[in-house]
Write a structure and sequence with these properties.
Largest sheet: 9 strands, antiparallel
Number of strands: 9
CATH superfamily of one domain: START domain
Shape: globular
Order of helices and strands: EEEHHEEEEEEHH
Number of helices: 4
CATH topology of one domain: Alpha-D-Glucose-1,6-Bisphosphate, Chain A, domain 4
Radius of gyration: 15 Å
Distance between the termini: 42 Å
CATH class of one domain: Alpha Beta
CATH architecture of one domain: 2-Layer Sandwich
Structural class: alpha+beta
Strand order of the largest sheet: 1-2-3-9-8-7-6-5-4
């Protein structure tokens, strides 16, 4: 079991991304992208962009459905070379371009309700710091996500996002 508290959070570097256990119920991921926040936000808001970077590098995003508005839903299916699929889903709760995005995030097949994820996009000197905070209903749920190795997938996905941002800049 991994523990932390708000006065002494646990952090570790995973490639260019920092993972922090902000509390017993929260995981924070942070990375600086070499692109303006308008572009980083756009890459999260349009399927033609999301298809190019979301998921692991050895997988294809075979389904990318998104109704990008508060109350709209989304569903992504990542297909590995062996044909195995992993599906994710949620609902957009709050959208404040290009500053903030809040959605629910669930892995199909994992017990429990989708958790809440908040994305903040902050620009400084043409670079964007993207911070996501995932909130879980229990320590057990947060720890299950950590045990899944999600930080390696997230770091790899954000490397793909950085490459995509370079390509469209």
């Amino acid at each position: 079991m991994v523990t932390s508290d708000s006065t002494n959070p646990f952090s570790r570097q995973v490639g260019a991304m920092t993972l922090t256990l902000k509390s017993d119920l929260e995981i924070q991921l942070t990375r600086v992208f070499n692109a303006p926040r308008r572009l980083v936000f756009e890459a999260h808001s349009k399927p033609e962009h999301v298809r190019r970077w979301w998921g692991r590098k050895d997988a294809e995003l075979s389904v990318c459905e998104m109704d990008f508005r508060p109350g709209g839903t989304w569903r992504y299916v990542m297909r590995k070379p062996n044909g195995k699929e992993y599906a994710f889903r949620g609902e957009f709760k709050e959208i404040v371009p290009p500053e903030r995005l809040v959605w629910t995030f669930g892995f199909e097949g994992m017990p429990g309700e989708p958790g809440i994820e908040t994305f903040t996009f902050e620009e400084h000197d043409g670079k964007t710091t993207l911070t996501t905070i995932s909130h879980f209903d229990s320590i057990a749920m947060r720890d299950a996500v950590i045990k899944s190795g999600m930080e390696h997938g997230a770091a790899e996905m954000w490397d793909r996002l950085e490459a995509h941002l370079r390509a469209i800049a």
